[in-house]
Every structure is written in C-alpha cells, then in structure tokens.
Design goal:
The protein is mainly alpha-helical. The protein contains 13 helices and no strands. Helix 3 runs antiparallel to helix 4, helix 3 (55-75) packs parallel to helix 11 and helix 9 runs antiparallel to helix 11 (194-212).
Length: 269
C-alpha cells in the first residue's frame, strides 16, 4: 500500500540559481512573478548580491522588448527617430525608469552638492533638478539618435547587446567600490563574490557575441570603460556606490555601446 505524503510536509526549496535569476528579474523590471515560485519564501543568504550575475540576461530581455517595438514601428513606416523613441519608451516602461531615475539623481547630486553630505542628501530627494532633467534629455536623445541611424536588424541586435553589456559590469562595480551609505538598498545588497562578477561578464559576452558577432569586442570595451569611468567619478564624488550610481553607470554604458555600434555599423555600411 503506497504511503500518502504528509500534508504538512514542506516542499524542498527551489535551486538557488532560480531564486537568484528571479530576484534579478524582479529587481530590474516590473514584470510580475506568480505567487508560487522561486521567491515564495525567505531569500537565501547572499541572494541579492548573487542576483547581479543574472543582470545581463534581464538586460537582454529589456533590449529585445525595445527591439521588437522598433521593428514594429518600421513595419508601420514610422520615421526612424520616432521608432527609436518608442523603443526606448518601451524599455523604460518595462524597467519602471529605474536606471533613468538613478542617472538623474546622480547628475543632481554630483552637479549641485558642495560636500559629501549634501550630495547624498540631494541624491535621496525624489524631485529632479536641472542637472537631472538635462541628463535624461541627453541620455534619451543620444541613444535615440544612435538607434535611428541603424537599419532595423542592426538596431534590434544593438538593443539586445546594449541591454546585456550595460548591466554586466555592475557586479564588478559593486565588488570594487564600497557603499557610500551604511543604509540603503546598495548597502543591504552586499558585496558580490568574484564568481558572480565572472558570471555577469560571461553572460554579457555570450549575448554580445550572439547578437553582434565580430563587433562584440568593441561594444564590450565601450561598456566596461563607461562603468570604470562612472566608478572613478563616484569614488571621487561620494567615496563609493549607491543604487543611483548603478543606474547612472547602466545609462552611460548603454549610451556608449549604442554610439560605438552606430559608428562602426555606419562605417561598414
């Protein structure tokens, strides 16, 4: 006679990697997850830091969403710039403007703060100042112009690669820099292990190679140089990183990748 399972038996926890990947998806997008799944229950220790290794995969999904919108706009014979703006609007809708908000706060804090305390205070203020508004205008405008200069297939590939590459260096930033605040999301997230940094880089490189082929290397170099530059600026300005700094690094890296690809693909056309 078969033994019936006890109704009170607790099901085994899901594999750790599924929780890390799901946490990355929840953190970087506004996509809802079902109530029963990898995040149904307490998080495993270090899950927030390990989730950064999966950021490039989520970024590729965000970029693909923008690419689909860009392709649909082209099918409707919309002007390339209008299609590019609609594509970026779709990515902002999917992420909730997470990175754009961080970039605007960093621009306001670094541009308007006279000392460390004031800079951090401004960055915590949800209101956007003149530096923040200008940063968003230039970020959206430059990325849209770069996309509009590309044919549709190249633009879709560029968005996927830029989405992944602009997020693959964030784990490296979190490992190299210390949190600028003792409280806050960035401090609570913890310092990722080197294995997480390497996983993020591996995902970013693999996606870039699949999307771009031989152009993956210059695109990767552009993204990493952008993250290094933002890291150096953050260290000088506030002595470390915050969640807003991650957002700014992503925006600068994505812009750098799209500009690089626009220049290279335009030169080879």
């Amino acid at each position: 006679m078969p033994i019936m399972p006890d109704a009170t038996t607790v099901p085994p926890p899901p594999p750790r990697w599924t929780q890390d990947a799901a946490l990355a998806l929840v953190f970087l997008t506004r996509l809802p997850l079902p109530p029963i799944g990898p995040l149904n229950g307490p998080l495993a220790e270090g899950a927030s830091a390990r989730a950064m290794g999966w950021f490039p995969l989520v970024g590729a999904l965000v970029g693909l969403t923008g690419g689909v919108v860009f392709a649909m706009a082209a099918l409707l014979h919309l002007p390339p710039l209008a299609g590019a703006l609609l594509a970026l609007a779709a990515t902002v809708r999917l992420t909730g403007g997470l990175h754009e908000d961080g970039a605007a706060d960093v621009a306001d804090g670094f541009g308007g703060g006279r000392d460390l305390a004031r800079k951090l205070e401004i960055m915590r203020d949800s209101r956007a100042g003149s530096y923040g508004v200008l940063a968003l205008v230039f970020s959206v405008g430059i990325r849209a112009a770069a996309l509009a200069a590309l044919p549709v297939p190249a633009a879709v590939s560029a968005l996927v690669a830029a989405g992944a590459l602009s997020r693959c260096g964030l784990a490296m930033m979190a490992r190299v820099l210390s949190p600028a605040r003792r409280d806050g999301l960035a401090a609570a997230q913890g310092r990722p292990a080197m294995a997480t940094v390497l996983l993020a880089l591996a995902f970013g490189i693999a996606i870039a190679v699949a999307a771009l082929g031989g152009l993956a290397l210059p695109a990767l170099a552009a993204s990493l140089l952008a993250v290094i530059a933002v890291s150096a600026l953050a260290r000088k300005q506030i002595g470390g990183h915050t969640g807003d700094v991650f957002g700014a690094a992503q925006q600068v890296a994505e812009t750098a990748v799209l500009l690089t690809l626009s220049a290279l693909m335009g030169a080879s056309a």
